[in-house]
Amino acid sequence: MVLPGNHEAECHSPRCMVSREKRMALGNYAAYNTRFKMPSEESGGALNMWHSFDHGPIHFTSLSTETDYPNAPTNQFARNKQYGGFGDQLRWIEADLKKANKNRDKVPWIFVGMHRPIYTVFESKSDVPIGQTLAVQAAFEELLLRYKVDVVLTGHYHYYERQLPTAKNKAVMDGVSAKYTVYDNPKAPVHIITGGAGQSEGMSVPPTHNASWNAVNDYKHYGYTILHANRTTLLWKYVSSADHSILDQFAMLKTDEESSE
């Protein structure tokens, strides 16, 4: 399953880069929306830009941090043109999360996937998002909190960070174990950046500071993630691509009955 990031609106081959016609034709996610087919029709979404689906005990909502929200970013490879126009994304997200929250007796977990993070140490100052992350936070965080999203999976930065349960720039420590390895009925979403699988640009420049809501980070090793899930437990592992050793792991528990809205 896929969701849009900044590179899906860009062309990197020399032939495309030197051709204004090709850059403009591909700039508004044309190739990306042609190549894949996500379940947007089934979920009332928009092409491959935003959509949702259930898999086992998890409802996955995929959204676009590239288009169709206030102060969405521009595309640097097409004369800084701002793209989008795929529909009312924020209205769709609210309807989708509201429906999922009411369906927790059947599908208890809600995950949101989006390319750009809200919480990343690099793009924060004194624990507060700055730059584009501030615009992402302003657009989406209230919906994540209102409908009690469990996990927010992101990328964009080419490394790994796992945050503590976090809301409005503050860690919410209820149910968090001393070594941050168990989150027992956390009271805020858990944000995870898993962008270290590897690509031609290499690892991102690591931050030179930390944030109080950051639990674990790995700015050196390429890796991938494995998730095991049932109705009451999520087991998350970040695994080294080089030797398959476990670089990070933690468990989330859901033992209290969820109240739907």
Automatic annotation (TrEMBL):
Residues 188-249 form the Purple acid phosphatase C-terminal domain. One of its GO terms (molecular function) is hydrolase activity. It holds the Pfam family Metallophos. The keyword Glycoprotein applies. Keywords: Glycoprotein. InterPro entries: Calcineurin-like_PHP, Metallo-depent_PP-like, MPP_PAP, PAPs_C. Residues 1-160 form the Calcineurin-like phosphoesterase domain. It comes from the Eukaryota. Coiled coil: none annotated. This is Calcineurin-like phosphoesterase domain-containing protein. The lineage of its organism: Eukaryota, Sar, Stramenopiles, Oomycota, Peronosporomycetes.
